[in-house]
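### Sample
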Amino acid sequence: MEPFIPLISEVGFPIAVTLFVLYRMEAKLDHVVQSIQSLPERLSGK
């Protein structure tokens, strides 16, 4: 059990940061996809 504690402390933080960044990026990508999908409607309206 003792060898796993340093491993978790060394790897756990980068994993947490990666998951947080991926979660934030997913929200931004959803917004980009919606914008791209609405683009033809906006272009045809002009």
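The chain is about 90% helix and 0% strand. This sample (YvrJ family protein) is used throughout the tutorial notebook.
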